[in-house]
């Protein structure tokens, strides 16, 4: 394995999930969200999916039993009223949400990480599997309960065949020696022990996608006000003094005599972002926004003189209007893409579909001029 190797796929052994406490939503496992729209394929073979689900169910069952014991032990003092104890158990232990919780968490993890669930049976030769079994070839050992190694063998051989067909290099993460032995002879799979080291290898290629994931999470939790303020500041500069086409209604003949507009406010209509362009030190993302602008328009009002067949100027009026329009915006972010969001700088915001025309309502002469 070369330090310069740019891996195109990631495979994580069940032991790594267990070693990280099966905390699919946080910690190092939570960082796997960066692969959601990454060009790197996060492989999750069906065998590993089944093992994770089983281990989650065992964790949930053990946690539920421990919680029930704690509630019973506290019954004499916290829940001395029998009805209160019953209600506490019903709320915490009999909730329907607990049933199927393991499957729900696993499905959410797959969705949030964009994991590709690999059907091992579609990429596995049973004859080759048995050949390795009887010849004690990795990942099968010469001693011990070799039948326990079948899941590992199925996963590694299936991924190896997938990688060969896809012509992709795979980084496997496992602290199982049998995995390491197998990968030593594989042309397509390398193996390391630490998840943190594996994520570090993808940091450079995945930095834009990791940042995108962090930014979307910050928007969802309403923790991205600094980013939104910077976008608003750039929109203000972008729309300062824009001149929209003028539209209006009047019982008089009117002509536009100039307009001037400015930015008022905006909000994102969706927290789902999209990478348009990226480099080591900048990133262009696409957002969907609703932008509110205000504008002032000058109008000339005239009346038709049927005798001279001409228009006679009556008044000049100024009208103001406020209008909201929706557009995709391109936000150019510069700085260390692997650093904190707060330290990034927004260099430019471009409105893809700027507002072209504003309706200024009904125009009437200012009667005070005649008074």
From TrEMBL:
A Pfam family recorded for this sequence: PIN_12
Ranges for domain DUF4935: 11-179
InterPro entries: DUF4935
Protein name (Swiss-Prot/TrEMBL): DUF4935 domain-containing protein
């Amino acid at each position: 394995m070369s330090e310069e190797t740019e891996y195109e796929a990631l495979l994580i052994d069940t032991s790594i999930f267990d070693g990280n406490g099966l905390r699919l939503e946080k910690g190092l496992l939570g960082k796997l969200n960066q692969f959601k729209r990454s060009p790197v394929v996060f492989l999750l073979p069906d065998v590993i999916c089944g093992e994770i689900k089983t281990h989650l169910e065992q964790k949930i069952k053990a946690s539920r039993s421990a919680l029930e014991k704690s509630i019973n032990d506290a019954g004499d003092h916290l829940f001395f009223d029998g009805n209160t104890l019953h209600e506490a158990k019903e709320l915490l232990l009999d909730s329907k949400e607990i049933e199927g919780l393991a499957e729900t968490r696993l499905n959410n993890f797959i969705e949030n990480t964009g994991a590709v669930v690999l059907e091992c049976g579609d990429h596995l030769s049973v004859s080759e599997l048995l050949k390795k079994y009887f010849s004690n070839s990795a990942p099968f050992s010469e001693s011990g309960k070799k039948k326990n190694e079948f899941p590992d063998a199925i996963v590694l051989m299936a991924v190896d065949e997938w990688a060969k067909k896809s012509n992709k290099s795979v980084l496997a993460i496992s602290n199982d020696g049998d995995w390491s032995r197998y990968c030593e002879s594989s042309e397509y799979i390398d193996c390391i022990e630490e998840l943190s080291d594996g994520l570090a290898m993808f940091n450079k290629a995945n930095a834009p996608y990791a940042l995108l994931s962090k930014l979307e999470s910050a928007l969802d939790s309403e923790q991205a006000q600094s980013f939104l303020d910077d976008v608003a500041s750039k929109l203000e500069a972008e729309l300062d003094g824009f001149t929209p086409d003028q539209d209006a209604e009047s019982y008089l003949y009117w002509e536009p005599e100039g307009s001037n507009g400015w930015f008022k406010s905006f909000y994102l209509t969706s927290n789902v972002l999209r990478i348009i362009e990226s480099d080591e030190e900048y990133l262009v993302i696409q957002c969907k926004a609703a932008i509110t602008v205000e504008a002032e328009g000058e109008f000339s009002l005239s009346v038709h003189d049927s005798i001279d067949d001409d228009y006679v100027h009556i008044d000049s009026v100024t009208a103001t209007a406020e209008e909201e329009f929706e557009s995709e915006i391109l936000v150019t972010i510069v700085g260390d893409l692997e650093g904190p969001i707060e330290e990034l700088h927004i260099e430019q915001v471009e409105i893809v579909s700027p507002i072209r025309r504003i309706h200024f309502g009904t125009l009437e002469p200012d009667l005070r001029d005649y008074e």
